[in-house]
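Catalogue entry: protein
Contents: sequence, fold tokens
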Amino acid sequence: GHIKEVTAVIVTSNNKTIISASKDHTIRLWGLDNGRLMDKLEGHTDVVTCVAATADGSHYVSAGRDKQIVVWTNAGKWSYLLKGHTEGVTCISISHDKKWIVSGSEDHNVHLWEFNGKLVRVFEGHKATVTSVHICPDCQAIVSGCKDGLIRVWSKNGGLMQQINNHTGPVNAVVVTPDNTTIASASDDGTVRFSTLNLKPTSPDELPIPEVHSIAIAPNTSFFVTGSIDGALRIYLFNGRLVQTIEAHRGCVRSLVVSPDSELVVSAAEDRRIRVWNPDGSLKTTL
């Protein structure tokens, strides 16, 4: 496996491959069913902080502290490079229609790119590192979370649409529900909060748990899962009911993803382990 901490994991849309990023400067591809290492992508010169895949599975995109965003073919070949950030890139998101890439950085900015690599727009306003970005399912808006504790919603065409200030600590992760209505955010303040997209933030549901570093929503919206500094995964229904706590890792859970069929949860943590879980809390495999 990786020789240093795993920073991010995703599952490809065909439900067959786990892709992981690491502080060892590599991206690795694993079989979801058998846990076998399928490929290792090398090219970054510093920590790889994030990875994403297109909905059609044709390309992967990775980014890191080397300020580079790399687009790879699904054959593992370096395709092209996106350059524009002046500090390390911390997060990326690809639109479902494969027309856009969004990135966030330690330079406090959010960049919007055409998928061919052309920089279209720079969104300025955050006062600290941008920790998480998400292109809304309708591809018309971008949500960003920041260490300054703010969540911002940007129009893809430019301009700030919404600012949400409902955390008392840095925001570590933001995701938007598949129906394009709700933002879920996780924070150092130990809460996961839900806000209505594009409207006045709700008096949000708060789920008191240890410092939360990652969150993922099941594509079928039947549950969501959080990863915390205590190494635990917590699975919730959307009414806020905790249905499962999994003592998953020794160390902070840095990244989470739910498989496209909503049948598996994949976690990655500071203990360098990538683990695949069934929603009932049983361990399927360790990579």
